[in-house]
Design goal:
Layout lengths: L2 E4 L34 E5 L32 H13 L4 E5 L9 H9 L10 E6 L4 H11 L3 E5 L5 H8 L5 H14 L5 E6 L8 H8 L5 E6 L17 H9 L4 E3 L10 E5 L5 E5 L12 E4 L4 E3 L6 E4 H6 L4 H13 L5 H7 L12 H4 L2
Parallel strand pairs: 1-13, 2-3, 2-11, 3-4, 4-5, 5-6, 6-7, 7-10
Antiparallel strand pairs: 8-9, 9-10, 11-12, 12-13
Helix pairs in contact: 1-2, 1-9, 2-3, 3-5
The structure holds S-adenosylmethionine and iron/sulfur cluster (2 copies).
Length: 370
């Protein structure tokens, strides 16, 4: 379990606010961290369980039948999540992404989606509401989620070849069901669907071109993600990473690609368009090209710990505040105090150190949700 920084001593709960660090108080919609970065994007992990065992994320050896997941009462309730999301929005958050574990395993998720869809940004606009899923339950749930107010989905899919895909999810799940989920999501209006492919050398890099060919011209935006050294379960090695420039070179042997401008500041993917009008792809170079400079993302774990970096080993305990009876003002001040003190830029530091630094006890991707 990751270490947790208490924001307030539980015993002082009735004196909510007294133990909080100083920080800006009333939300202005323009909260900045210690490096001048706004808090635009909140990723909310709604469950720590998953029905897949992707080796780069929840390898079976670590996440076997004896693994202890969070008990139900530890999970933030939908009301707790929406309350926090509303406070984040007042500080400038414009985008919410539901993730996990596998978010579609959380019962009645559409109830949460409806609550989040009702939140407005500091400018009075609806938030961009998205979800990242492994796609296994998507065909069944897409219409309900859309009706509840979800805007878009991102589906993780690492291979088209059924044998390779079954091996990578390690639960023998067929690729056809995920592809069907993507089609249903597009058909009900949860597009443009993005597909995330984590590329691992010698495991699925031979699928890069096939994936591109499959999704070209369909409106789906395929994004290639460098395999990252998140968590401490996956035995990450630099040798397993296929750098984005290599992915680009392999694609360029088949198609002409032209760079596109980022659609929003802080966007993780570098966008490229097929010159023949076949749509676009994205390259997420989390390992070889640090994008900490405009990183505007915070992460709320399943049990209400606020993490400021994917590679953090400490979260800030918002659940204790919530359950200790803190007022909105106290919670808002806590969020502001944590974000305004943020200095994280792990990928840049790792880049400077030549991929050699690895903080201990890093949180697992399945806990924090990516
Ligand atoms: N279960 C959902 C899914 O797979 O989309 C949501 C949670 S998953 C942790 C979120 C994203 O993190 C997925 O796109 C997954 O491929 C990515 N991911 C997990 N471990 C990773 C790693 N070591 N390197 C790069 N991406 C990773
Ligand atoms: Fe599950 Fe997603 Fe992690 Fe795969 S990447 S094990 S689907 S949480
Ligand atoms: Fe943001 Fe941390 Fe990733 Fe840098 S390493 S881009 S600060 S999450």
């Amino acid at each position: 379990m990751p270490r947790v920084i208490p924001l307030i001593d539980q015993r002082l709960a009735s004196l909510a606010g007294r133990a909080l660090p100083h920080g800006p108080s009333a939300p202005t919609g323009h909260l900045l961290d210690g490096r001048g970065r706004p808090l635009r994007d909140l990723r909310i992990s709604v469950i720590d369980r998953c029905n897949f065992r992707c080796s780069y994320c929840m390898p079976k050896e670590k996440f076997g039948k004896d693994y202890r997941y969070l008990p139900h009462q530890a999970l933030l309730t939908f009301e707790e999540i929406s309350r926090l999301a509303r406070l984040f929005a007042a500080h400038g958050t414009r985008k919410l992404r539901l993730t996990g574990g596998e978010p579609l395993l959380r019962k009645d998720l559409e109830v949460l989606v409806a609550q989040l869809a009702a939140i407005r940004s500091a400018d009075g606009l609806p938030l961009d509401l998205t979800l990242t899923t492994n796609g296994s339950l998507l065909a069944r749930k897409a219409a309900t989620l859309r009706d509840a107010g979800l805007h878009r989905v991102t589906v993780s899919l690492d291979a088209l070849d059924d044998a390779v895909f079954r091996r990578m999810n390690d639960v023998d799940f067929p690729v056809a069901d995920v592809l069907h989920g993507i089609e249903v999501a597009q058909a009900v209006g949860l597009g443009p669907v993005k597909v995330n492919m984590v590329v691992k050398r010698g495991v699925n890099d031979h699928e890069i071109v096939a994936m591109a060919r499959h999704f070209r011209g369909t409106g789906v935006v395929l994004r290639f993600i460098e395999y990252m050294d998140v968590g401490s379960s996956n035995g990450w090695r630099m040798a397993d990473v296929v750098p984005s420039r290599e992915v680009l070179a392999r694609l360029s042997a088949h198609w002409t690609l032209e760079p596109l401008d980022a659609s929003t500041p802080g966007e993780t993917a570098q966008r490229w368009a097929y010159a023949d009008g076949g749509g676009e792809i994205g390259l997420i170079s989390s390992v070889t090209q640090a994008f900490c400079g405009d990183c505007n993302r915070a992460r709320l774990s399943t049990e209400g710990q606020l993490f400021l970096c994917l590679f953090a080993n400490r979260g800030h305990d918002l659940r204790s505040l919530l359950r200790g009876g803190a007022s909105d003002e106290t919670l808002s001040r806590a969020i502001a105090a944590v974000w305004s003190g943020r200095q994280d830029h792990y990928s840049e530091q790792r880049g400077a150190a030549g991929a050699e630094i690895q903080p201990e006890d890093r949180i697992e991707m399945s806990y924090i949700g990516g």
